[in-house]
Automatic annotation (TrEMBL):
This enzyme's EC code(s): 3.2.1.15
Low complexity bias: start-end ranges: 180-191
Region Disordered, residue ranges: 173-194
Catalytic activity entry: (1,4-alpha-D-galacturonosyl)n+m + H2O = (1,4-alpha-D-galacturonosyl)n + (1,4-alpha-D-galacturonosyl)m
Organism: Gymnopus androsaceus JB14
Name this protein carries in UniProt: endo-polygalacturonase
Length: 398
């Protein structure tokens, strides 16, 4: 995400939610970035021309300014650097690929001071997202660092809000992705929400924790594409989004050791006159044609899902079709270190609208969904019915 990723219902992507960065990596751990030793000085950034000199210092202070259109604010601090944001960063408008901002490094502490990263998404949104219409810079923020990233508001991302590719990162609150403004239609969106593909967080990394954030957008609150040891806890996903997702999973991918805990997924009023609902709650989706991939050891614990218009819980191996002919090339299974693969622990409550599906599981075969799936911690209500196909689910209350 962060599909989103973005929050003003992915129009106002207010990344006010605290993105809990991945836990600080040990000094001797090599992450995505090469090791970089800095000087004991303070570097100040008031424009992109200041970046190179500031990157020599272990303390970096970023003031508020406008990043020129068509340029990426790329920051590569020294190992262990302390980075603070003291004003709003606004990104100039231009139809180009992006990203708008990128940070790379090891054991970095980034404190946004509650300030905005403003992508000016309202100037781009046309209801077609990042795969159609005008070219939109995507993502607004790419985090390829280890350490902690916190106290930032991502507002009105043109496409995805935050893409995480670094390891050992904790993104913590308060962080907010707020492109909620994207919920309303505009003159270019043909009556549809103007914001699309405004994922809050897209994760393709290991050892990542995201906690205490609020995402109000028009796509996935969280989308995990690959990675191990990923925790998403105590976050709020609201708006007309697509909830918390693993996938879609393509070929040659491993997702292992995912904990989704203490989150709230719900619709939210965009104004006093209209109430919007989340389309999906909790999803695992794999491409029907994908091969050589594994999704394992996924735990849902004490989540509250409500106001869902399509699927409360959806595990589907037929993407991009929904509940179509499923493939069998992705194995959703239990590893030797866990007794069950996809489990619901504690108390997870899922309630959906009368026309929605509370729970749907569409596995290609009993060999593509394996292990022991203990769903005793799931209580689902509402909807037109639930179907579990080719999955070893036990203990469910549907």
């Amino acid at each position: 995400m962060f599909a989103s990723s973005s929050i003003v219902v992915l129009s106002l992507l207010s990344f006010l939610a605290q993105v809990s960065a991945i836990p600080a990596a040990p000094k001797n751990t090599t992450l995505n970035a090469p090791r970089k030793i800095g000087k004991r000085c303070t570097g100040e950034i008031q424009s992109l021309s200041d970046v190179a000199a500031a990157e020599e210092c272990t303390t970096i202070v970023i003031g508020g300014f406008t990043v020129p259109a068509g340029e990426t604010f790329s920051l590569n601090p020294p190992d262990g650097a302390q980075v603070s944001l003291t004003g709003e960063l606004t990104f100039g408008f231009k139809n180009w690929a992006g990203p708008l901002m990128e940070i790379t490094g090891n054991d970095i502490t980034f404190n946004g001071g509650g300030h905005d990263l403003n992508g000016q998404g309202t100037l781009y949104w046309d209801g077609q997202g990042i795969s159609g219409g005008v070219t939109k810079p995507d993502p607004l923020l790419r985090i390829n660092m280890g350490g902690t990233f916190s106290n930032v508001q991502v507002v009105n991302s043109p496409g995805r809000a935050v893409a995480i590719g670094g390891s050992s990162l904790t993104d913590t609150n308060p962080c907010t992705h707020h492109p909620a403004a994207g919920t309303a239609a505009n003159s270019a969106s043909g009556g549809k929400p103007a914001g699309a593909n405004t994922d809050g967080f897209d994760v393709s990394a290991n050892d990542v924790t995201i906690t205490g954030c609020t995402v109000n957008n028009q796509d996935d609150c969280l989308a995990i594409n690959k990675g191990t040891s990923i925790t998403f806890s105590n976050n709020v996903c609201e708006g007309i989004g697509h909830g918390i997702s693993i996938g879609s999973i393509t070929s040659g991918v491993t997702v292992s050791g995912v904990t989704i805990s203490g989150n709230t997924v719900t619709g939210t009023p965009s104004d006093r006159a209209r109430l919007y609902y989340s389309v999906n709650g909790l999803r695992i989706k794999t491409d029907a044609t994908a091969t050589g991939s594994v999704v394992e050891n996924v735990v849902y614990e004490n989540n509250v899902v409500s106001g869902i218009t399509e699927f409360g819980v959806l595990i589907d191996q037929s993407y991009p079709s929904t509940l179509g002919t499923p493939g069998t090339g992705v194995v959703i299974e239990a590893s030797r270190s866990f007794a069950q693969n996809v489990s619901f622990e504690g108390t997870n409550t899922v309630s959906v609208a009368s026309s929605a599906h509370a729970v749907e599981v569409n596995c290609g075969s009993t060999s593509s969904c394996t292990g022991t799936w203990n769903w005793s911690g799931l209580k689902a209500s509402g909807g037109s019915g639930s179907t579990i196909k080719n999955a070893p689910v036990t203990g469910e209350t549907l």
